[in-house]
Amino acid sequence: MMTVIGGPVQAGPTAPDWGAVKDKHRAMWALGDYPSLAAEVIADLGPALVGVLGVRPGERVLDVAAGSGNAAVPAALAGAQVVASDLTPALLAAGERVARERGATLDWQEADAEDLPYADGSFDVVMSCVGVMFAPRHEAAAAELTRVCRPGGRIGLIAWTPAGFIGQMFATMKPYAPPPPAGAQPPPLWGDEQHVRGLLGERVRDVRVERRTIRVERFTTPEEFRDYFASRYGPTIAVYRAVADDPDRVAALDQALVELARWFDRAAPGQPLVLDWEYLLVTARRGDVARP
């Protein structure tokens, strides 16, 4: 997985060193403990995506930016032949452990979502669960998703929406984060219907888009939410490190994340947090004729 926090910026005189950018993001996603977060907070997302796609035994499935296998492992348990690809080896290693514990067999491979090492039309199903959205160059990633899917094959994506909780968390962290590389696009744009339709374009047909929410009741207080993400979620850890030398900015970020959780809390006063995190679910079929 990779992420760019913040909005698009104007291209400067020198193009970014994307290899260096990806090295930084590979290291960032190895911070904290994203596999435990995926298992404890958003475990229902992967099975939801696999279910909507109707993954069947024997199908060839690619999970792009699979992380620790939130969607890949359920697809394998459904009987599919699954390749789980991700930029970060530490996440793949964690996924392998989870798969063994659950009795799932799949292939874990390090791969860049913007330059997948697979032949055209290699897979019956190509999917990504809050993963490919963190690739900085959206058009490149979308082109790869469709390229490796066979004509008539199925594509399924889950992405956090800009206005939803996680999208607003990134907006909250943006003032405290270093500027993104020139040409990078913010992850939550993948949760905007028009943006995703534009990315997939004429390469797909039968596009279906649905807004859903996942209810999160893992945290008792806003402060517990903040501390959990500050210790386990790579992007949040990276932002805290960026301001670590400025106690006032650390305190301001602390308060901003607490206020975010309070704003979204649906619980009655005095009760543990109830947060509904909105995401966009997109399914489509690869067009029968490849288009540039």
SSE blueprint and pairings:
Elements: H1 18-29, H2 34-40, H3 45-53, E1 60-63, H4 72-77, E2 81-86, H5 89-102, E3 107-110, E4 123-129, H6 138-147, E5 149-160, H7 165-173, H8 193-200, E6 204-216, H9 222-232, H10 234-242, H11 247-264, E7 275-286
Parallel strand pairs: 1-2, 1-4, 2-3, 4-5
Antiparallel strand pairs: 5-7, 6-7
Helix pairs in contact: 7-11, 9-10, 9-11
Task: Describe the fold and architecture.
This protein is α/β, with parallel strands linked by helices and 292 residues long. It is 39% helix and 20% strand. The chain contains eleven helices and seven strands. Helix 6 (138-147) links the parallel strand 4 (123-129) and strand 5. Helix 7 packs antiparallel against helix 11, helix 9 packs across helix 10 and helix 9 (222-232) packs across helix 11 (247-264). The longest helix has 18 residues, at 247-264.
